[in-house]
């Protein structure tokens, strides 16, 4: 039951420049039944289509915002946008798909949490959406539920936290097992990298020094804690043979770790946020408590004023692949729960509506990226990573009709007074943005035009995402075949063996293993170290031992074919 009449289902966008992540061409775009039917010049189309004049304008694939927090409870506060207001704000900003977060409480069923979110979102969402599920604790139940979510519920990404000690944080061994499991089931492993132990120590120390204001957030979690954890995440992912996707990359140090890992050939991708590549941490030293608190997030904005510029450059050169809003709006009243203690200020910044225009202003107008790279970081790369491409993230016949007509010359001044998104602050207040969405088309319907909405609550659909995205896993599957380690074939030792005095103690080695592990594969393997810095498990010495039940691979070797249809 769509609210659109039949005339709305046929749209011709005429005279514009179609921008994809690899090229720009002069072409008309004809849309019917929610699908892009034709792209080109002199199109033969049936009558009765609504014509949009795009002369002098760009026609872009709708934005995909890979991290939004709608109707989410976090740090004792519920975000100031539900799925209706949040997706409406997305459409107003030129974003046609959002990926939300399901964050189960410790020991809560991942499936139940997921189903609760689905119900809320299906009823309200105005645009297509998908969901990441947080792996906020670890155990056999989580392992089984992850597999069920992947097989039956259309989830293909999980987020792990190295920070948030005592709530979400996983220890290294747990993270290793979670990443191994993500690899087995072909999911995208999102990792929030900050050293949770040292963040907790830093917070204690900062409060003891009498620093209770918002500046404490940057003092207590400096960027070296992010750089260290980022390096650790990359290492753990490498040992687990799992592609790692780092979220909220917020500092030069962490960005450099990602760049180095890529140069070493590790399968690593990075996502940063609009705020981190535009704003710096001097905001925390503002005299007005409300203003400073409005910027509190984790990882925090960084004090080094060259950071945003650096992160924007990394987006421009493909070191960082995706820019999300990480939209998590709180009101000043909610932030004020931490008025006497910065550790109680809920973390989160608004921005689902601002992302596209702000990145255009600072990235494209700022000379850090061209319009094709803009499409890549705001849409196409996300579509590739989450296995939605080329149905989403590209303007070609057969793709979903999620399209934005973009005015590169137009401009608007951002203000909290005219925003659709929730919260009572806007981080970019007074910023004049060149590059604005004029028309947003979602699922083939015109939903936003020159400030007017025609979207129906609940008209968006959940997008099930397939496992083993080629963009992440193709290389991995091949490496597993080509770089297997093998035991050395040698005569067994037959000499004497010293007797071990048994003092009643258990074997020391096993006492630390308080989590079930896979059979040990430590053995005298031999490997040509000049060949690669990568070690992958192929044929193993323990192949005769039955593997854990969850190691069924959910796709054929080489991945499934990823055609549009």
UniProtKB/TrEMBL annotation:
Family annotation (CDD domains): D-HYD
Region listing for Disordered, in residue ranges: 504-565
Domain (Amidohydrolase-related) ranges: 58-446
InterPro entries according to UniProt: Amidohydro-rel (IPR006680), Hydantoinase/dihydroPyrase (IPR011778), Metal-dep_hydrolase_composite (IPR011059), Metal_Hydrolase (IPR032466), Metallo-dep_Hydrolases_sf (IPR050378)
Pfam families according to UniProt: Amidohydro_1 (PF01979)
Cellular component GO terms held in the UniProt record: cytosol
Gene Ontology MF terms in the entry: hydrolase activity, acting on carbon-nitrogen (but not peptide) bonds, in cyclic amides
Domain of life: Eukaryota
Protein family: Belongs to the metallo-dependent hydrolases superfamily. Hydantoinase/dihydropyrimidinase family.
NCBIfam families in the record: D-hydantoinase
Identification of the protein by name: Dihydropyrimidinase like 5a
């Amino acid at each position: 039951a769509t609210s659109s009449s039949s005339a709305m289902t046929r749209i011709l966008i005429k005279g514009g420049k179609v921008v994809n992540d690899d090229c720009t061409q002069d072409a008309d775009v004809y849309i019917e039944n929610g699908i892009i039917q034709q792209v080109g010049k002199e199109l033969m189309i049936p009558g009765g289509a609504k014509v949009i004049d795009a002369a002098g304008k760009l026609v872009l694939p709708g934005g995909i915002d890979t991290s939004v927090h709608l109707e989410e409870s976090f740090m004792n506060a519920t975000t100031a946008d539900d799925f209706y207001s949040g997706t409406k704000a997305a459409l107003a900003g030129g974003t046609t798909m959002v990926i939300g977060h399901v964050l189960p409480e410790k020991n809560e069923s991942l499936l139940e949490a997921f189903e609760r979110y689905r119900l809320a979102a299906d009823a309200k969402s105005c645009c297509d959406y998908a969901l990441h599920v947080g792996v906020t604790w670890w155990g056999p139940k989580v392992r089984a539920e992850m597999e069920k979510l992947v097989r039956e519920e259309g989830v293909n990404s999980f987020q792990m936290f190295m920070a948030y000690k005592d709530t979400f944080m996983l220890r290294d061994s747990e993270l290793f097992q979670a990443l191994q499991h993500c690899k087995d089931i072909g999911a995208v492993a999102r990792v929030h990298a900050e050293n949770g132990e040292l963040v907790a120590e830093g917070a204690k120390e900062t409060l003891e020094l009498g620093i209770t204001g918002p500046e404490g957030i940057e003092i207590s979690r400096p960027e070296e804690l992010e750089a260290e954890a980022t390096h650790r995440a990359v290492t753990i992912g490498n040992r687990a043979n799992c592609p790692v996707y780092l979220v909220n990359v917020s500092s030069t140090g962490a960005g450099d770790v990602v760049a180095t890992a890529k140069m070493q050939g590790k399968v690593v991708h990075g996502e940063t946020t609009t705020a981190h590549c535009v704003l710096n941490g001097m905001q925390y030293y503002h005299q007005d408590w409300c203003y400073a608190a409005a910027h509190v997030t984790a990882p925090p904005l960084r004090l080094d004023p060259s950071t945003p510029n650096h992160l924007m450059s990394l987006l421009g050169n493909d070191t960082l692949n995706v820019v999300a809003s990480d939209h998590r709006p709180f009101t000043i009243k909610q932030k004020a729960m931490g008025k006497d203690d910065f550790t109680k200020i809920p973390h989160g910044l608004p921005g689902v509506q601002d992302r596209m225009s702000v990145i255009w202003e600072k990235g494209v107008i700022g000379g850090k990226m061209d319009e094709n790279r803009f499409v890549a970081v705001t849409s196409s790369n996300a579509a590739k990573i989450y296995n939605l491409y080329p149905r989403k993230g590209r303007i070609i016949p057969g793709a979903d009709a999620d399209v934005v007509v973009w005015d590169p010359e137009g401009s608007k001044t951002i203000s909290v007074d005219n925003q659709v998104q929730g919260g009572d602050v806007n981080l970019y207040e007074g910023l004049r943005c060149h590059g604005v969405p004029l028309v947003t088309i979602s699922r083939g319907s015109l939903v936003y035009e020159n400030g007017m909405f025609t979207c129906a609550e609940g008209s968006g659909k959940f997008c099930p995402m397939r496992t083993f995205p080629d963009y992440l896993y193709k290389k991995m599957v091949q490496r597993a075949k080509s770089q297997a380690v093998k035991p050395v074939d040698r005569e067994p030792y037959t000499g004497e063996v010293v007797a071990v005095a048994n003092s009643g103690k258990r074997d020391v080695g096993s006492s630390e293993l308080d989590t079930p592990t896979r059979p040990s594969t430590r053995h005298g393997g031999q490997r040509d170290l000049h060949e690669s810095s990568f070690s992958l498990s192929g044929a193993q010495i323990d192949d005769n031992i039955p593997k854990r039940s969850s190691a069924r691979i959910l796709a054929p070797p080489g991945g499934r074919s990823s055609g549009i249809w």
